[in-house]
Amino acid sequence: MADTLIGAIDIGGTKIAVGIVTAQGQVLAHQSFSTQPEQGPQASVQRIAQALITLTNNQSANLSGIGIGATGPVNPFTGRFGAVEFLTGWQDYDIIAALTAACGVPAALENDADAYALGEWRWGAGRGASPFIVVTVGTGIGVSLITAGQVYRGVDGAHPEIGHHIIDPSGPPCTCGAHGCWESLASGPAMEDWAARQSPSLPRRTGAELCAAALTGEPSALAAVQRTARYLGLGIANLVTLYAPQVLALSGGIMRSSELFLPVILNTVQATCAYVPKEKTRILVLESDALAGLRGAAQVWLSRSDEPKIE
Amino acid sequence: MADTLIGAIDIGGTKIAVGIVTAQGQVLAHQSFSTQPEQGPQASVQRIAQALITLTNNQSANLSGIGIGATGPVNPFTGRFGAVEFLTGWQDYDIIAALTAACGVPAALENDADAYALGEWRWGAGRGASPFIVVTVGTGIGVSLITAGQVYRGVDGAHPEIGHHIIDPSGPPCTCGAHGCWESLASGPAMEDWAARQSPSLPRRTGAELCAAALTGEPSALAAVQRTARYLGLGIANLVTLYAPQVLALSGGIMRSSELFLPVILNTVQATCAYVPKEKTRILVLESDALAGLRGAAQVWLSRSDEPKIE
Description:
- The structure is a homodimer.
- Chain A is built from 9 helices and 10 strands.
- Chain A is an alpha/beta fold.
- The first copy, chain A, has 2 domains: 122 residues, Nucleotidyltransferase, domain 5 (2-Layer Sandwich); 160 residues, ATPase, nucleotide binding domain (Nucleotidyltransferase, domain 5, 2-Layer Sandwich).
- In chain A, the strands form 2 sheets. Chain A has a 5-stranded mixed β-sheet.
- In chain A, strand 4, helix 2 and strand 5 form a beta-alpha-beta unit.
- The longest helix of chain A is centred in the C-terminal third of the chain and has 25 residues.
- The radius of gyration of chain A is 20 Å and the shape is globular.
- The two termini of chain A are 28 Å apart.
- The interface between A and B is large, with 45 and 45 residues.
C-alpha cells in the first residue's frame, strides 16, 4: 500500500477542498475553491477533476480511488445527493458516476460528518476504537457511529438520526415530529432560543456570545449554558447506555467552550449508566484540524473497499 | 451442513431445557428438568451432559457444537456467569469450559434474550433482517440488537442496556442511576407502581390484571395502560431513530395484550422519526413458541463461528 494515493474531496456549502492523501493519512497536496452551487454540480466536478490532475502531477503514483465527504444527506450507495439546503440544483445528482467518468478512477461517497468520523477513527482521536462515536454539537446535533471501522448502517443502508432521539417529551417541538428530541434541547440554536425566551427584552445572543458571557459569570447566560450542559449530559449518557462506545468524541462550535459543558457531561455519565462498563468509555473533545476533512474523505475510499456488501 | 447437529441448552432460573437442533433449525428431540440452583452449577452440567448423550443416542450424526442461552448477565467471551439473581452460586462459573470438558465438543454462550433474538433472526420473524431488534417488555425492558446476524458488541464485547436509556428525566429513579429511563416508565412493574400510586386505597394489581381491566374499559386501569403505551411508543420511536432497524419485534408478558399498546406505538413512530426511513421498519409482535429458546441456543453456536474475532 506504500504507493497508494487517494483523491480526497470535501464538499461543503461554501467551499470544496481537494487533496491527495496517502494510505497513511498524510495530505501531500491540497487546494480549495468556492462551491458556487448556482453553476450546478457538473461545473464543480470539472473543477475537482482539474484540481486532481494538477495535484497529482508531481506525485510518483496514480490515484487508486477517490473518497468524497459531502455536506447534507447523501446516499452512499447510489452516489446521489438528497435535498441539500446549501446545494440547490444538486439533488439527485450522481457524484460518484460523474467523478468516476471525469477522473477514470472509482469513487466512494459519505456524508461529511461520517467521513470526518472515519478519518478520526483511522488516524485521529478514535484510532482503532470500536464502537467509535463522534457527536457534533452546532446548528444541530450530528452523530456518527463507527463500528469495526465502518459506518453503522440501518435498513437498506439508512443512516440513523441519533441527534433526534427523544430525551424529554416536555421539550419543544422539532421538525422531526417529536417534542424534546436531543437536538431541540441541546444544539446551539436550542440554547439561543431558550435564552431569548427567558430574556425577551434583550437582543438575541449567539451561542458563542452566550458562552463568552457565561465564562464571566453573567447569570442569564450561565442559566442557558447550564441547561444546555444538562441536556448534553443526558444525551451523552444515553449514547453510553445505547452503544457502549470505546471512544466518544465531542466536536462542533459549542465545544469550543467545552470547559462549560464537559464537567456536567462527565458527571451525568458517572451518575447514571450503571449497567454498562462506562469506565471503559473514553469521552474527549476533538481538536480542530484544518486537514481532518480531507483525511476523512480519503478514509471513505479506504474503508469502502473493506465494507461487507449490502445485498 | 446437512448432517450438522447442535446441542442447544436453554438455562433459566427454574428450568433447564436441552435439545438437539439441526442447522435448519429443526428441534429433533428435547427434554427439560428443574434447575435446582442450590445444588450448584456442576450438578446441572452433569445433567445437561447426560441429557445430550440420551438425546443424541438415536441420531445419525454427532454434535458439532453446543449453543447456550442463559438467564441473567453472562460473559459470552469468558463463558462465565455474572451476578444472576436466580442462580445463586453460579457467579463466575465458566459454563463453556465445563460443558466442553463434559461433552467433548466446543460450546458458545449468550444471554438468553440475545439467544432468542438470534434464533428469531435466523428462522423466525426477523429472518435475515438487518438490523433486527427484539424488545421484551416484562419485569424489565430487555433489548437485543442483531446486526448482520451478530449480536451488537460494545467496548470489549459489552452489551448495551438499551432498556435503560433516558426518555423522560421527570420520571422515577431507577437502579441504573437515572431518572426516567425507559424501563422505569414502561415495564410491567412501572405500570403496576404507577397504578398503585394513583389508587392507594385499592389492592395492588398485576400488569395482567390491569390489562384485563383496561380491556373492559375500567378508567383507572385504562389510564395506567395508556401511560405505559405512551412511553412504550416514545421508546420504540427512539429505537427506530437510533438504529433504523429493518424489523423491530415486540415480546414479553405485557405484549400478550398487544392490542392495548401496539396502536399507540405505531402512531408514535408515525408522528415522529421524520429523518429516518421509518416506512421501511416493520414492527410486529412475536408469537409465543415453546421451542424458540432451543432454536435460539442453537443459533448461538452457528453464529459464533461466523463472528469476527474481538482483538
